[in-house]
Amino acid sequence: MIAGPCSVENAEQTLETARAVKAAGATALRGGAFKPRTSPYSFQGLKEEGLKILAAARQETGLAVVTEVLAEEDVPLVARYADVLQIGARNMQNYRLLEAVGYEGKPVLLKRGPSATMDELLLAAEYILNAGNPQVMLCERGIRTFETHTRFTLSLSAVPYLHERTHLPVVVDPSHGTGHANLVARMAAAAVAAGADGLIVEVHPNPETALSDGYQSLTFEEFEGLMEIVRRVAEAVGKEIG
Ligand code: PEP
Ligand code: MN
Asked: Which residues contact 52 (CB under 8 A, 6 or more apart)?
């Protein structure tokens, strides 16, 4: 279970969230320091200052740090602080970036592009593997469809499908996949039932004031509720959440 804020906003917000998700049973902390925003006028992230805050949260809680690297030139900097390098959906086919994280060698969480097919996702992963890095996790985070009631359409059949096509672990992101906090816990449970190897979930001390993705972020209490339902489903399908 990877959980944490969409963006690292300040030390207090990140540390508070890290403590809460750790207490609820998460093993890794997510948080963006380099943010790929649709608008250039939206909050772009704290960059290196954000990475330092994540490292401090790891130091205190023992949680592994998962954070996005936006550009090839930032790979060495982000890799100094992160345990897992996240490649965002918008960058899934940024082949130079994929090669750079491949050569770097740290574990990579590769998010599916909003309009990418399964074949395109698998071939993107090949760029990282082919550069000599076998530690790749694939992430289904929702695709673009005609449907508007959710932000994206979470394609859960990707989980068993990818398990048939590859040995790589499959992580599901029900936060971006739905775009609505009230849908996240049940889709997380459904992902586990579909065989997901991991989940990545957005959590914020006060979602209403979040600088990004507040509408899909869970409060600490909601995250505890998610862990409860996810644990029950995991047990039913013979998996452990940790
Ligand atoms: C994120 O994880 O906050 C993010 C920007 O995700 P995606 O790349 O899937 O949109
Ligand atoms: Mn987000």
From this structure: 81
